[in-house]
Amino acid sequence: MIAEANSGHPGGSLSATDIITALYFNILRHRPSDPEWEDRDRFILSKGHAAPALYSALARTGYFPVSQLATLRKLGSPLQGHPEKGKLAGAEASTGSLGQGVSIGAGIALASRLDHKDYRAYVLMGDGESNEGQVWEAALFAAHYKIDHLTVILDRNRQQLDGWTEEILNTDSLAEKWRAFQWHVIEIDGHNMEAILNAFHEAQSVLEKPTIIIAHTTKGKGVSFMENNLEFHGMAPNKEQTILALQELSA
Amino acid sequence: MKSAKELPKELPQKWPMGKATRDAYGEALLALGHEDARIVAVDADLSKSTKSNLFAKTYPDRFFNCGIAEANMVSVAAGLASCGKIPFASSFASFLLCKSFDQLRMSVANPNLNVKVVGSHSGISLGEDGASQQSVEDLALACALPKFTVISPSDEVSCKALVHLAAKHIGPVYIRTCRPKTPKLYSDQETFQIGVAKKLIEGSDVTLIATGLMVYNALLASEILKEGGISAAVIDIHTLKPIDETAIISAAVATGAIVTIEEHLLLGGLGSRVAHILSQHKPTPMVSVGINDTYAESGSAEELFEKYGLTPEHIVLAANQVLKHKI
User: Fold this and answer.
1) Domain ranges in chain B?
2) Does the ipTM exceed 0.95?
3) A94, A117, A122: best to mutate for the B interface, most B CBs within 10 A
4) Architecture in CATH for domain B198-324
């Protein structure tokens, strides 16, 4: 898909793929044939550059034909470079400008509470994204209003565009930071499906607190030459690399 | 020292002193809360100033104080709107538009969400607090957001009516309110439509096109001009986007000379919008009155209007200037 578009973010899409797969195939209460179903859980891809991972999940669960994935980033396609609500059924927010998803998710979960509904908001953010001040405004807000129907998953792949997160802007001790903001914190291996599902189930049982799942992941997961390779943050693979990557991923 | 809350002191009887537009907003929001359970409000620790506190007291379950965190507030409002709520997000105009512009852009405008954004203490009429609180660029910023409707009421009656209309309008709306009490320009029975300007005074020599508190100054200028034998029409552009092109072009055709007046930077506000329309449809001599590429400073509203060129006398000078160029 990214090779077809000849641009995009393979690394951060692959690090988040296991989490997004768990959400769309197991956790989210959603109806692909009725994307506006008002009681659905909402998933916000706050790290909008991982759009290919979201689009794959939406296609594979039936929101649109899998063949449409080839139109990623092409003129007129609903599959924009970063997700846009209103252009694509299933995109719950317009993201790509980092930092806004946790706040949007908090608003969604508040609406659920106001209407005495049970739908939940799930937000996937990046670790580089936690550089953004708005994330911490939202962290204060969701804890203050005890928004327990908000679950954030932090894709801790330890890399951002310019390099390792600890070198660009030290984001270490993330669990301690979120605990200090009065969130329920779960740390897992973000590529262990059982651990991912258990974490979501634990989050659903937490009352009066928002939950953050810090998922330790590998950027470019599943493709040997992309794993932890900074080059593939925002670069599409060439033809040979694509064939090799697809072989490794399907192995 | 003159108080910023009483401008100007001597009022012609036909325009008695009324409430501040922010007070009118607070009352309208409270009334909306009663009418429609979907109305919710968020504020950024300024609810006593923006007047969303009236709603907060009556509907505490539907009010969320976000603390001093405008970016989060706007995105929270977007989340609420995406689930069918009609959120009103209030703060000072300068903080709302400048601190949360990206959130207005991507959380709200891009997905065309039904969020109402209300910026109080706009312009320089808030006075003594100085440039950091004065909002001289909010209209330009709001008009730059695709899908947004932009409203700038001139008095309490129009403000109340337009807040109600904004709540019924589906889509994002920015409403600009002001701190000082202002003269009442309309009767309580007056009706309004978003995007349809109001002609307050008929005239044949020149048209004064104003928005917000400057509508009153334009009315005073029109009285002064009348004494000098110049017949000046006055139009209240309460909606900057979509702007009433028909009213503007008709005024250009009828009077052949235009003065625009706004409590805002000259670039990107009412004057720029009117010039854009006239240059395409009816090139007409015009002069713009507004703040010329600068931040203002502390002082009373009257002192600031004088120093930054927004008094009725400045409008009269502009009218005389444009009349010299009238074809």
Assistant:
1) 21-176, 198-324
2) yes
3) A94
4) 3-Layer(aba) Sandwich (3.40)
